[in-house]
Amino acid sequence: MRIGIEGTHIFDARVDGAVPVLDRARELDLDGVFFKSVLDLSPTLDRAELEDVRAYADDLGMYLEVGVGLINPCALPEKPHIRALGEGDTRRAFERMIEASAWIGCTDLLAVTGQWKSGLPGRYAYDRFRTDVSWEDQLEMTRRFLVALAPALREHGCRISIETHEEISSFEVVRLVEGVGPDVTSATFDVGNLLVRGEHPVEAARRLAPYVRNAHVKDAVLLVRPHGLVRQLRPCGQGIVDWTELLGVLHAANPDLNLSIEDNQGYMDIECQDPSWRALHPDLTDAELDAVTALAELSERNIAAGVWPDPVAYDAHPWEEHKVVRLEESRDHLRKVIAGW
Fold first, then answer.
1. What pTM, to 2 d.p., does this model score?
2. Cα dihedral: 32, 39, 179, 131 (round 10)
3. CA dihedral sign, ordered 49, 52, 54, 56
4. pLDDT digits over 127-140, tens only?
5. Pick from 277, 317, 318, 264: which is nearest to 118 by CA?
């Protein structure tokens, strides 16, 4: 397993460019970069530009992974540049991104089923809780879109790697992969997002492990609140995740899995005490949710005892000044776990 970085949250390839992000990752003794969109390498999918980034990563001895972005047809109108890329044909835009990714040897392509909306209150920030179209209908339309992309994926030897994003559960990712076919779909494992769906990281890893081809890694503390729980991200090894057990599960299924560190500040609510929230998670057992609540209670005890920093004080560190320190702490902890096997 190699340790790298996700190319948006800590250093942003959309602003700085792909090569400078690779340089920063190399300076920090990381093994590669996972760009969320192949368009971060070349907004026009120019073959020469793509080949230059591929060659640069190869010269540095670094892994290169890319994505194709949002695959939920109900949310795609929020991405007009994708439709423009296909000259009015959204499917053609994805086929172009698939072909371009395969051209530079990237074959498991990150995709997400929604986007968090910072301007909306509570659960309505997640596409799962939209009131104009049900989540079940969104998943069905996503499945159909993946089926429509399957011929292009097979032609180019690629798979859409569905992320366990904030809006989707691991159970639903498994159903999409198995329903569309593991020859054209796979999973991107994001441990922090699974917590937002009330899932225990290790249990979710056991469900997903046969299909995981990419990974975003981060840690978190969980806080107990009247509405349920609150998640705050922390560097790997400084939160509730048992990395020895988690990585053991993922490694057993895919020993070559790259672990890309993703981090940011802020809180996410988990309104699991609300019956309407609970009703929209029919796969989640009470036992698993209780295990996640126990992790929150552990967080509260460790914070009260001074073992872990107070959440407000921790987030008071300016992000731009603290992000590299957090990244290095995650890198060092993950390598320590791997070295101990």
1. 0.96
2. 120
3. negative
4. 999 999 999 999 99
5. 264
Provide the pLDDT confidence category of residue 120 given band limits of 50, 70 and 90: confident
Say what the pLDDT of residue 117 is: 85
- 121, 135 Cβ separation under 8 angstroms: no
User: Is 275 exposed, middle or buried, given 0-12, 13-18 or 19+ CB atoms closer than 10 A?
Assistant: exposed
- The CATH code of the domain that includes 151 is 3.20.20.150
Mean pLDDT of the chain: 96
Establish if 28 belongs to a structural domain.
yes
Mean pLDDT of 310-320: 93
Q: Look at residue 103 and tell me if it is in a domain.
A: yes
Locate all alpha helices (DSSP H) within the chain, ordered by sequence.
13-16, 18-27, 47-60, 80-85, 90-103, 135-156, 170-180, 191-196, 201-208, 243-253, 275-279, 286-304, 311-315, 319-339
Structural domain includes residue 229: no
Neighbours of 199 (CB within 10 A): 26
Strands 228-234 and 2-6: unpaired
